[in-house]
Design a protein that fits this description.
about 500 residues; 2 strands; single chain; Hydantoin permease
Length: about 500
Amino acid sequence: MSDKYAREASIEKYDGYTPNGDVVDDIDIEKGNTHLPAYVTQPNGQLSKDDTITKVLEVNGFHRHKEKTAPGQTDADRVEYISEVTAHGEKKFHKLTWFQLVIVLVITAVALGTLSMPLVFASLGMVGGTILTVGMGCMAVYTSFVIGQVKLRYPQVHHYSDVGRLLLPGTAGVILSRCLEVIFVFFIILGIGSHFLTGKMAFQTIVDDTTICALVWSVVTLVLLFLCALPPSFAEMSVLGYVDFISIMSAVFVTLIAAGIDAHSKGWNTGWTAGAGNVTFVQGMLAACNVLFAYAFSIGQFTYMEEMARPEDFPKAVGVLGIVMITIYTCVGALGYAFIGPGVKGPALLSAGHTISRVAFGLALPVIFISGAILVTTDGRFIMDKLFKNNIVRYVNTARGWAVWICVVLGLVLCSWIIAEVIPVFSPLLGITAALFNSAFTLYLPGIMWFKLIKEGGCFSSPKNIALTIVNAIIIAVGLTILGAGTYASVQDIVDSYAGKSVGKPFSCKA
């Protein structure tokens, strides 16, 4: 077997950690430390021919001889086959450009969060809504830069949960990493659930037939979202990003234009105010949570950067995305509130009158399913990489790989669908998702990463460090505040919605 195949077939490569979970620096490898796996200290990290065959045919109990192409193959034939599948898979999942990353992040961020912005401004007033939207956006963009720096400095971080082993040493880091894995999966499942609610709402509004049970439209949404989520790579999904962006912007513009015409006919007297008015604590915190949800793009950044051909280009993507997001959210929120007034609904597409709402939801159908699908793909890729780290199944380019991928996607959409039926309220579902999980992934965890992994020198050793210390301390404080107060407000709003019978029971025909 050639050196090429020995190199490509070494499926179980050094992952940047010692056996007990500690992070290993490059200098440890150069010194030939004995605590590292044997194949790490060999030239170029390559295995010998015999070791390569052993590793490929049997890794962690996965017997690779099951991956046969024809009867009577030798071990070398099987290793060559697996090497070719692996090489194809690596190429397939490492071709994302920085501009494609922008598209993927746009799909993730500028979606359903946009539809909640006018309601945020209605709760906090024009001034409060603008300050919160711009301020939260700046924090989200900054923490995204921190996440990108961590990825470049620690290439062994493939997904967000891997950061756990960087933040804490030894067993504690491994435990934190496992906890983050569960939180990561559940967070995205909740995000997918919001797309089920919006999809059901869209079909009900478009068809306008109250005799059809709402659960029917919920199942239709489930099937369509499952089909849209089948492509396994982000490069493939990014092609749909243009359709996604045009879809959400068209729906929003139609709503705003119609609302503007109506406001003009009323002499622009819609009742909007600069101040917050009589906003309650629950309403204020729910508004903050909804804004945070709108900036929930960094959750998948490690995963997306893992597929980039040049990860060092990430600042271009984050910079472009930040400008686009802050501009869109502020304009949509301010104009929607100014044109519609305090009576704006969530999602905002319901606020422009019956006929216009039907048109707007029709235009929004692509974004509902494409953005939902990218979330399923993000969770699916994470699960595949974790369950099949040492197996070519994770590349989804064999019959077995496709079978497993389809099962993973189906499981994710079913779990999300069940949660959406149990919590059938749009704004509180976004709020509780942001409060519990996005407060961590977008705010306080990146702040902690800067102190632990990025900061060079003491906190007050230079003007730059002093400024960044203050910035990251504020971000951590904001994140922890939203975690506590935001969760309380979201749960209270859900309880109030059920008590007031403004929503139907789970799995019922009432939306």
